[in-house]
Design goal:
Elements: E1 2-13, E2 16-28, E3 33-38, H1 44-51, E4 58-63, E5 66-67, E6 76-80, H2 91-101, H3 107-117, H4 130-143, E7 148-152, H5 160-173, E8 179-183, H6 187-190, E9 196-201, E10 204-210, H7 211-217, H8 221-228, H9 235-243
């Protein structure tokens, strides 16, 4: 179980202080596929990076009751559109490196996903397209052998057909002990394979609901998010009316 308690993060810059996260309480159990949603600047990336220990924060993050440190960080993996691989190395060299450092590395899964995305194994990662780099980033996160896989906008730069197929592959390869949290804006694309949705707004938890609860309420994830964020359907019309004339 991954437990986040009273987690807060404040940035101090030239223009003053900004409260990026405020007293976040969240529990992730094994086997969940969680969507992390929020407007730009809501704190999604900051939350993921705090969990991983990339950023300092106030509060507590525990993995099965223990702080995350060198002894258990191997149980977490991260896919980011900013990329964390070595650009001068080939895909095969990355596989060798990961096999050396992660005893739980999933070699068979790696080979299957490389074949699925049709990625070259002998070319340096710096020669890949933006979409291919993001695909490889996801492959590494899924094959490290982690129990908790965190993804931050992992499908950026990929066309809709690749994304749709990958969602199906993802649900087919995940094992019962693997938990995935995906931070994304692609609500309608991912809602059909999530087990839970967590909503951030201005650094706070605005909603946390299971897909089963939504089904019982007869509400789609998109409608739920619009309701929580108090989406105003007429705001576009008002802008267009106001922009007419001089």
């Amino acid at each position: 179980m991954l437990e986040i308690r009273e987690l807060s993060k404040r940035y101090i810059g030239r223009t003053g202080e900004k409260q990026a996260l405020s007293r976040i309480d969240l529990t992730m159990t094994q086997g969940e596929v969680i969507g992390l949603f929020g407007e730009n600047g809501a704190g999604k990336t900051t939350l993921l990076q705090c969990i991983l220990g990339y950023l300092s924060y106030q509060g507590t993050v525990l993995l099965d009751g223990k702080p995350i440190d060198r002894s258990n960080i191997i149980r977490l993996s991260y896919a980011t559109c900013e990329h964390s691989f070595f650009p001068n190395l080939t895909a095969d060299s990355h596989r060798e490196f990961y096999q050396m450092h992660f005893q739980t590395f999933r070699k068979r899964r790696f080979e299957q996903l490389m074949e699925f995305f049709e990625l070259p194994k002998k070319k340096a990662l710096k020669t890949f397209s933006a979409g291919q780099k993001n695909q490889f980033e996801v492959i590494l996160a899924l094959c490290q052998g982690a129990d908790y896989i965190l993804m931050d906008e992992p499908f950026a730069g990929n066309d809709i057909f690749n994304r749709e197929d990958f969602y199906k592959v993802l649900m087919g390869i995940l094992e019962s002990e693997e938990t995935v949290m995906i931070a994304t804006h692609l609500i309608e694309e991912v809602e059909h394979f999530l087990s839970r949705a967590v909503l951030l707004r201005k650094g706070e938890i605005a909603g946390d609901i299971s897909v089963l609860e939504l089904e019982e309420q007869g509400e789609s994830l998109t409608d739920y998010i619009k309701r929580i964020y108090q989406y105003r359907a007429n705001r576009v019309e008002k802008v267009l009316r106001g922009a007419q004339g001089r």
